Amino acid sequence: VRVRPLMEHEVLRTAGSDGNPDNGHQVLSLDPPDGKSLTVNGAEARHQLRVRFDACFGAESTQEQVYSQIKECASAVVKGVNATVFAYGQTGTGKTHTMFGPPGHVQELAAAGGQGAHAFGAMSGVIPRALVDVFEQLHALATPTQQQQQQQHGGQGDEGEASPTATIASYAVYVSFVQIYNEQVFDMLRDPSRGKPLEIHEEDMGGGVYVQGLSEYGVGSFADCLELLRLGEENRAIRETHMNQASSRSHSIFTV
After folding, report:
1. Minimal CB count within 10 Å: which of 65, 120, 135, 244?
2. Which residues pair with 212 in a beta bridge?
3. Are 109 and 103 spatial neighbours (Cβ–Cβ below 8 Å)?
4. pLDDT exceeds 70 at position 160
């Protein structure tokens, strides 16, 4: 669970009778020291609920701290294991911020070229960070280790010693980007006007589900992914709400 900071109008609304925001009623509080519990405080003392989760992040938490909790998902994908990071919450709770970053952030990264691990900033969300991890780990697996290079050129190693890392001959990465809008599925990369809804089908023999006609793009780097993320985000349906000036009006799924 991640708790976002209060917006300016929320701070004013929850201020104490003296106008001081610090003296207002605190509805939600995180309970140290384990960082896994939070308390919901009602208007009366008897209306209090304390719950535990795998992890709780307060309003001061950073994007890096949040990603560190789920970064093993990127490693799982490299190992061939399906992994999903699902952001759930009502409008204005910070889902897009957590997954992508602040408004315009993906566009800024794409414009900068997205070169290397230092291409993303402190405000980058889960998806840019996971993409960097995936490509770094794939590159490491596809690059011969020093010991393997020595063995290839007749170098002497310890007899029977296994290679320190398993390597792969080559790899291919494909991505797709869909949005679910008004209970219909659209390709965010090929259908910006949302004119051609796609159909979901179930594979034979219980092999899962797939979206018929969904485009997949081959990518060779973090920068390639950023360009597709930029394009998809620009095509996403948004509108202003009282909670968010650019609220996402669709559910999006970015698949690697």
Report:
1. 65
2. 199
3. no
4. no
- Inform me whether the pLDDT recorded for 197 exceeds 80: yes
DSSP letter for 21, please: G
pLDDT of residue 86: 94
Mean of the per-residue pLDDT values of the chain: 81
Please report, rounded to a whole number, the percentage of residues in the chain having pLDDT higher than 90: 41
DSSP letter string, 89-154:
-STTSSHHHHHT-STTHHHHHHHHT--SGGGS-TT--HHHHHHHHHHHHHHHHHSPPHHHHHHHTT
Q: What is the Cα–Cα distance from 179 to 197, expressed in whole angstroms?
A: 10
Cβ pair 184, 197 in contact under 8 A: yes
Residue 244 has φ and ψ, to the nearest 5°, of: -155, 125
| Token code pair at residue 244 | 């968010």
Phi, psi of 191 (to 5 degrees): -135, 65
Two structure tokens written together for 130: 């996971």
What number of other Cβ atoms are within 10 A of residue 253's Cβ? Answer: 15
Residue 55 has pLDDT above 60, yes or no: yes
Return the bridge partners of 210, or none: 201
Region 110-135: mean pLDDT is 83
What sign does the dihedral 190-194-196-198 (CA atoms) show?
A: positive
Q: Is 166 helix (H, G, I), strand (E, B) or coil?
A: coil
DSSP letter string, 42-61 = -SSTTSEEEEE-S--B-TT-
**Higher-scoring residue by pLDDT: 53, 18:** 53
